[in-house]
Amino acid sequence: MSLGWKWFIEYQTPHSAHMHGIKKIIHSKDTRFQKIDIVDSYEYGRMLLLDGKVQSTVRDEFIYHESLVHPVMIAHPNPKDVLIIGGGEGGTLREVLKHPQVRSVTMVDIDADVIESSRKYMPELSCGAFSNARTDVIVADGRRFVESCAGKFDLIIMDVTDPLEGGPGQLLYTKEFYESALAKLRAGGMLVTQATSTYYSIHCFATLFRTIKKVFGRAGGYHVWVPAYDSSWGFVYGTKGRDPRGLGAGNVDQEIKRRGIPLKYYRGEAHSALFALPKDVVLQLGEPGNVATDSKPTFMPI
Ligand code: SAM
């Protein structure tokens, strides 16, 4: 029975997928790096897809962006200079700028077309963040930028497309990259990265945890359910300073209030829930195993 509209099918594995009913295709373009599609869906409103993977939807992007950004930002006592790698649609940038201590955010994305099409067709994601006086947007490969930049940062936030074989972000999930990033963090600094699904690609999540732990010495993982990804989505961080996991719900609420940050998802008890990983995931993180390197990266199943 045809329901009279198109279906966009996103594969989590070769044998499991999430179908999205699509009203209209707004913009499609093959860039030097990836395929951009911006579509209007019935369930999630406007969506940004890259190489057939859901990146952000107007309806639920705040869940992902607030969960990626605020645990490490709140844990850092005075995050002045922040580096974002990726994040082309501007949601991560928007969230970082909410912290009053931030004096500069450098956002490095490899694909100007993602930034331009997001600004044009999904402006509610960046909410003017690209033209904020504290923002510096650089179009470049994130790996090369980190290896060559002179500056130091308090936080590095990795919001790059998934580690897919042949994808543009593949070498931003390796031991060698994290070693370069560690060298660009000030004392007390932290790095956090999106680390794929803690269900469909748990091996990838656990490998990224082992890799970042090997480089930083102190690392942790957490996750949040993202409806449009139809999965619990993982984040891994390495720290030279405080550990976000140690923050109690009360401290988080107090710090949010002190900094005057407007939020839709993140709050004290939500912070505690992010870090309450289930036993099966915790056991995976404790398993011995390989780390991701340039010569042997980790990949999602599809
Ligand atoms: N939330 C999404 C996720 O979890 O997969 C990521 C969102 S954001 C759209 C991903 C961004 O990573 C894109 O804008 C893409 O251009 C950028 N990107 C991919 N490879 C990159 C690289 N090597 N250097 C810098 N940016 C890169």
Layout of helices and strands:
Elements lengths: L5 E8 L2 E15 L4 E7 L3 E6 L2 E5 L3 H15 L5 E6 L4 H6 L7 E6 L2 H10 L1 H4 L8 E5 L2 H7 L4 E7 L15 H9 L1 E13 L4 H15 L2 E8 L4 E9 L9 H11 L8 H8 L3 H8 L16
Helix pairs in contact: 6-7, 7-10, 8-9
Bound molecules: S-adenosylmethionine.
What can you see in these coordinates?
- The chain has 302 residues and is of the alpha/beta class.
- The protein has two domains: 2-55, Roll (Spermidine Synthase, Chain: A, domain 2); 61-286, Vaccinia Virus protein VP39 (Rossmann fold).
- Helix content is 31%, strand content 31%.
- A seven-stranded mixed sheet has the order 8-7-6-9-10-12-11, sandwiched between helices. The chain has a five-stranded antiparallel sheet with strand order 1-2-3-4-5.
- Helix 6 packs across helix 7 (202-216), helix 7 (202-216) crosses helix 10 (279-286) and helix 8 crosses helix 9 (268-275).
- The radius of gyration is 18 Å and the shape is globular.
- The chain binds S-adenosylmethionine (SAM).
- S-adenosylmethionine binds next to strand 6, strand 7 and helix 5.
- S-adenosylmethionine (SAM) is lined by residues 50, 55, 64, 85-89, 108-111, 114, 141-143, 159-162, 168-169, 172, 194.
What's this model, at a glance?
The chain folds into two domains: 54 residues, Spermidine synthase, tetramerisation domain (Spermidine Synthase, Chain: A, domain 2, Roll); 226 residues, Rossmann fold.
